[in-house]
Amino acid sequence: MTLQIIDGKALANQIKEELKLEVEHWVENGGKRPHLAAVLVGDDPASQAYVRNKVKSCEQVGFQSTLLKYEADMAEDDLLDIVKGLNENPEIDGYIVQLPLPKHIDENKILLAIDYRKDVDGFHPVNFGRMAQGLDSYLPATPMGILTMLDRYNIETSGKDVVVLGRSNIVGTPISILLSRKAKVGNATVTLTHSRTSDLEGHLKRADIIVAAIGIPLFVKKEMVKQGAVIIDVGINRVTSPDTKSGYKLVGDVDYDHVAPNCSHITPVPGGVGPMTVVSLLQNTMKAAKETIYNKP
Ligand code: GUN
Fold this sequence. Notes:
The chain is an alpha/beta fold.
C-alpha cells in the first residue's frame, strides 16, 4: 500500500475558494456579508498566531471580521460584558473567544454566556448536546475539519476501529462522539484513551485510525502503529531546533518521520489539521449568516 499524505493546507484552500464563490453569490442575491468576531485576551504567542490566521482567512473568502484584543489582567465581569455586547450586536453573525483564557477567568462561565446561535466554535453546551444527539449544530472546528478531511479523501470509517488519544472538550471528546455517530463519516468503533488508560500501546496497535490530540511532542512511535493505519495528528507543539533560524519548529503528537512509512494516510504538522480547523470556523460562520441551523437572536 502506498502512503498518501493528507494535504490539509491544499484542501483548506480549495474549500476557501468554494466558500468565496458562495459568499459572492449570497451577497449578490441580497444576503448579509458574513461577519466573524474574535476575542483575544492576553498575549500568548500561539493564540495570537491562531487568531491572526482566522482574521486573515476571513478576508480571503470575503467575510468581514473584527478582532477584539484585551490585556491579560482584564476582569471576568468585563469579558462577560463584551460577550453580552456581541450577543446583542446584529452586525456580528458569529464569534469566538480564543482559548485558553487567563487563569483568573472561568472559561466555562464565559462559554455559557455566549449565545449558542452565535457560537461558531460549537463549545456551548447546547451545541455540544445537540451534536451528541445527532441534531444539527455548530460542530467544534477541529473535529469538523477532521471529518471533512476523512470525507474528501474517501477514507472509510464505518466499522473501523478508531483510537482517540486525549479527552479534551475541544478535540478528543467531540471527535470520539462524531466518529461513532450514525453518519456518512461515522459508524466507527471508538476507543477514547487518556492518562489513566492501561495498555495504551495495545489499543493503539489495534487501531485502523488514530486521532492524536494529547499535546505531547512525537508521542506516537512507529512500534505503536499497525501497518496501513490512518493517522490524524492534531498536535501543534513548539520544540527547540538547531535546524531553523528561529531556533524552534512545530511538531505533532506523532513521530512523523518514523511512523509515516508504515501508514496508508497521515496528516503532516504543520499543514494538516491546522488549516482545516480555520476553514471549519469559516463554514460555521457562513451557516450563521445564512441562518442554516438557527434563526438569528
Ligand atoms: N484554542 C485551541 N483551539 C481552539 C479553538 O478551536 N477555538 C478557540 N476559540 N480556542 C481554541
